[in-house]
Amino acid sequence: MKKTAIILGATGLTGSILLEKLLEDDRYESIKLFGRREIDGLPPKVHQYVGDLLVLEDFKNDFTADEVYCCIGTTAKKTPDKQRYKEIDFGIPVAAAKLAKANGISTYIAVSALGANPKSSIFYNKIKGEMEQAVASENIKKTHIMQPSFIDGERDEQRLGEKIGILVFQLIQPLFFGKLKKYKITQAKDLAEAMIQLVNSASTQLRITSQQIESLAKAN
Predict the structure, then answer these.
(1) 43-47, Cβ contacts within 8 angstroms, sequence gap of 24 or more
(2) Which of 17, 79, 151, 188 has its CA 20 to 30 A from that of 195?
């Protein structure tokens, strides 16, 4: 039986690649996108719902599918206000998990980050950790939380400082071995591929490390 998938964050780096992959995947007959703006030029297989994701409950009647892929995330540069940051990085994934549970969706997968820890003294790691806890507490039958390292890929917009930072990070990759291997850059295409592989597997593992993401992507 063919499936329906929901994507939150399809305009972002990982979400856009995930959308491309699901469009090519014959297991999916329908893809629902929830976001702040519509994406032009998509086939009839895609149904778009535009609105404020901070009040995701407004979409409750349309929030039905077999799977939810949550690729929502912002950055300190884009969202310097910490309260706003929490509303996005904590509020949206948790609200989506609650809606999934309420509407009987049995598979939920979300992108978090390496270093996520609710007890962390680092604000951004703390928020990610709290998000993970809240999502897991919904007890959705098949829940996966991805913990990538720095995510890289072809972005529509990239500031000079970001390009330099990525280049430096790439240059020191050979130094990351042993326990440091988990800090190697995670390619967005690998993250998207790993998410699809997990959702369509029998795995019940909750947290997926950056190294496991790479292995899953290569296994396809």
Answers:
(1) 46/19
(2) 79
Q: Taking phi first (over 0 means left), then psi (-120 to 50 degrees means alpha), and beta for anything else, what does residue 72 get?
A: beta
Residue 79 half-sphere exposure toward CB, CA atoms < 13 A: 12
Each domain of the chain, given as residue ranges in start order, spans 3-219
Predicted local confidence at residue 77, as pLDDT: 81
Q: Which of 3.40.50.720, 3.40.630.30, 3.20.20.70, 2.40.10.220 would CATH assign to domain 3-219?
A: 3.40.50.720
Which contacts of 87-95 are long-range, i.e. CB under 8 A and separated by 24 or more positions?
A: 87/54, 88/54, 89/124, 89/127, 89/128, 89/131, 90/127, 90/130, 90/131, 90/134, 91/54, 92/8, 92/53, 92/54, 92/56, 93/8, 93/131, 93/135, 94/131, 94/134, 94/135, 95/53, 95/56, 95/57
Residue 150, pLDDT score: 84
Q: Say if CB 34 and CB 56 are below 8 A apart.
A: yes
Residue tagged 């895609």 (tokens): 46
Q: What is the mean pLDDT of each run of 10 residues along the chain (220 residues)?
A: 96 96 97 96 97 96 98 87 95 98 98 95 96 98 95 62 56 56 80 97 95 88
Give yes or no for a contact between 84 and 43, defined as CB atoms under 8 angstroms apart: no
